[in-house]
From TrEMBL:
Gene3D superfamilies: Penicillin V Acylase, Chain A. PANTHER family: CHOLOYLGLYCINE HYDROLASE, HYDROLASE. GO terms for molecular function: hydrolase activity. Coiled coil: none annotated. This is Choloylglycine hydrolase family. It comes from Agarivorans albus MKT 106. Keywords: Hydrolase, Signal. Pfam families: CBAH (PF02275). Belongs to the peptidase C59 family.
């Protein structure tokens, strides 16, 4: 006889399979981990179907940007210096600022677009992460201002890029932001520690509620965790694996632990022979990890012929200048802080003069 727990897992797997078919893109995972003695750690993967020319960019405070080309485009002057990862030379998708506030942008098919005929300010999702990093010090502060703006989408190679967003601060506060059904859906609280992709976040919470272990002492093979590459299953995987973490002994140990539990999609797993050469899901191109007290960004890049692991000390480059480094270079290892070059980078496209 099949147990109720097994039936539940079968139902989740079936629902996940439907989600994977209906979803045009599966990309990325994000996890936040608050520890007792070493602050807050953040891990995210960039899961994508091709090289997307990522760069790491450091921007000083006091620069003015316009977030969308329309008359309603939001204009702001950055309050904080920050470091971020870019995508396709178009915008910033992950990073943290000098006061320990962090933001991540992950793909979400269900994202709506704002009303260009309305009254609210508009920000392209390509620069929304940058807008958050530039303006806010805490999750609470960001949420107090979120309803002043709406999201517009950018396109690349004819495809509309849509997303949802996670924010976290050095106090361990966390929130998930989704602009769906033409309005903001906010999930605020430390319990919202994992984000993947479609379906919408509420469905992920429902999946986890149904699939989570009934007892915290369920470990190893006793818990039938789903393990395929689509986002519904990755969400459950990340929640469960993160729950197994023990207090780190150092910043390095914490980064290693969190990175080890963040689901990675193998480079070839999504491109099986029966897919006729078309990638059905996105492989993990790189992973990013950092601690919001330490402010050292760790990157492991793994795509094509590049396989690297390197880090940059943000505080050492926070000197009132803008810096830039190509993150997909195959020769990056260890401390690359000294290899950054002075450059205005991707966000120069949105700067006002």
């Amino acid at each position: 006889m099949i147990s109720s727990k097994s039936k539940l897992m079968v139902a989740l797997l079936a629902a996940s399979a439907v989600t994977a078919i209906a979803t045009t893109a599966e990309a990325c995972s994000r996890i936040i981990w608050e520890t007792e003695n070493h602050g807050v750690f953040v891990s995210r993967t960039m899961d994508w179907m091709e090289e997307n020319q990522p760069t790491i960019e450091i921007r000083h405070s006091g620069q003015t940007y316009k977030g969308h080309s329309s008359e309603l485009g939001k204009t702001w002057t950055s309050k904080y210096a920050s470091i971020g990862m870019t995508l396709y030379g178009i915008g910033i998708v992950d990073g943290f600022n000098e006061v320990g506030f962090s933001a991540n942008g992950l793909f979400l098919d269900e994202e709506s677009a704002g009303d260009l005929e309305g009254e609210l300010a508009q920000v392209s999702n390509a620069v929304f992460v940058a807008y958050l990093l530039d303006n806010f010090a805490t999750v609470e502060e960001a949420l107090e201002n979120i309803n002043e703006i709406e999201i517009q989408q950018f396109s690349h190679n004819g495809h509309s890029m849509r997303g949802h967003y996670s924010i976290q601060d050095k106090n361990g506060d966390s929130a998930i932001l989704e602009f769906v059904d033409e309005g903001w859906k906010i999930y605020h609280g430390k319990q919202y520690d994992v984000m993947t992709n479609s379906p919408t976040f509420q469905q992920h919470l429902t999946n986890w509620s149904e699939a989570q272990p009934a007892s915290e002492d369920v470990i190893d093979g006793e818990y039938p965790i789903p393990g395929n590459i689509n986002s519904a299953q990755r969400f459950v995987w990340n929640k469960y694996m993160k729950s197994q973490l023990k207090e780190p002994t150092s910043y390095t140990n914490g980064l290693a632990k969190l990175d080890s539990v963040t689901y990675k999609i193998p480079l070839d797993a999504a491109n099986r022979p029966d897919a006729a050469g078309v990638m059905r899901g996105y492989a993990t191109i790189y992973s990013v990890g950092y601690n919001l007290d330490q402010k050292v960004m760790q990157i492991r890049y793994q795509f094509g012929d590049a396989y690297t692991h390197f880090f940059v000390d943000f505080d050492k480059l926070n000197d009132g200048k803008n810096y830039h480094l190509a993150a997909d270079s195959p020769d990056l290892f260890g401390d690359v802080t000294g290899q950054f070059i002075q450059n205005n980078g991707v966000m120069a496209h949105y700067a006002t003069h």
